[in-house]
Each structure stands twice: as structure tokens, then as C-alpha cells.
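Batch job 17 of 40 flagged for manual review because the log was empty.
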Amino acid sequence: MVRCMEALPEVGHESKLRLLDAALAVIRARGYAAATIDRICHKAEVTKGSFFHHFKSKDDLALAAVAYWGTMTDSFFAAAPYRRLGDPFDRLIGYVDFRASILNGDLYEYTCLLGTLVQETYDTHPEIRVGCDVGMSNHIAELTKDVESAKALYAPTADWSAESVGYFIQSVLQGGFIFAKAKQSPVVVREDLAHLKRYLGTLFGKTIETQERTKHGHLES
């Protein structure tokens, strides 16, 4: 994911940006408890003095990293090809396809910082939990706009809410990421996203032709 200094005027200093990038990488790869200040500084190639110049504590850095992640991902998805599609249902399917297309590299490179962080901190760090909740909810709110538009066009009398579908889409992704970590592979996530496309088709009365099993192979038992 490409970072953008112009999109982050509050960062203001290269060493702070390096610390934020390092925090994203270390937390996503190792979890919050293992993301020590020393490890983050080593990854960022800055001194602890530089760390404490920018952040009061590791928790303070985590909150800044959550906001930084939100700004980056907002820009990343706003520029994705599916956003240019005219039909809201096509945009939803395009979003799912786009998520499948970026399941590349190491696990930490395609799993979600917020999902990783909130699972570990939900009971012990309430401010971080709230930050993660806000970030995930904001992303779902963007998805919900397309669900609402598609519902108005293709399923206006359906008794489900657009917001609930937005949460379901993200639940599929976050659950898939957990299995990706357990199995050290994105195969389950790809299969989950293929099923998600079929499910969205049933909600909106569309037929989804999927060939993921032939493209990506069957799940291994």
C-alpha cells in the first residue's frame, strides 16, 4: 500500500512517518504485545529519543497508527478501479474482486491492522479498541453506500438492511484473515470471497459466474 505524505499533513516529519510505517509492519506481523518500542525503532531505523520526541508511549503510537492506516486505506480504496464502475452492484462485486487481487506477499501485507489490533487489545486498551471500531465502521459506511444504491435498484422490498450487509462483507474478510494466519495461506480467504460473490448475487437477484476454484485450486484438507 502506497503511503502519501500529502494525504497526511499532520505527520510533518520523515522520522515520524518511518515510525508509523514500522508500527504498521510490526503490529501486523507480530501482534501488539510483541511490538515493543525497541523493535519498532529498529524497524524504522530511528533512535528511541526520536520515538519519544514524536510519541508519549507505545499506546500513543498505536492510536496514531490507527488514524494513519485509516487515511492510507481510504485513499487506496478510493483510487481502486472498481470505484469507476457505474452500477452499484458491479462496484460491490468489483470491491470483492479487488480484495481478492491484493492477497499477495507476506501475511502481514494483506491482513488488516485494525482486525489484528482489536483482537488483542479489546479488553485491555479501550482507547485503541474505540479507534479500531471507528476505523472499521468508517470503511463499512463507504461500502454501505453502494449496498443501499444496489438495494434500491435490484431489491427495494428486501427486509434486510444495507448496513448489515456491509458488516457481513467485512466479517467474511476478517474471519478469512484469521484462517489465513492459522493456515499460513490466503487460500481460505479466496474461497470465502468467491462464496461472498455468490451470496451477493442471491441478495440482488444476479447470477455470479465464478471460476475461482479453477483459478486458485481447491482447498486442501
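Reviewer: the log was empty due to a logging misconfiguration, but the result itself is present. The radius of gyration is 19 Å. Unflagging and moving on to job 18.
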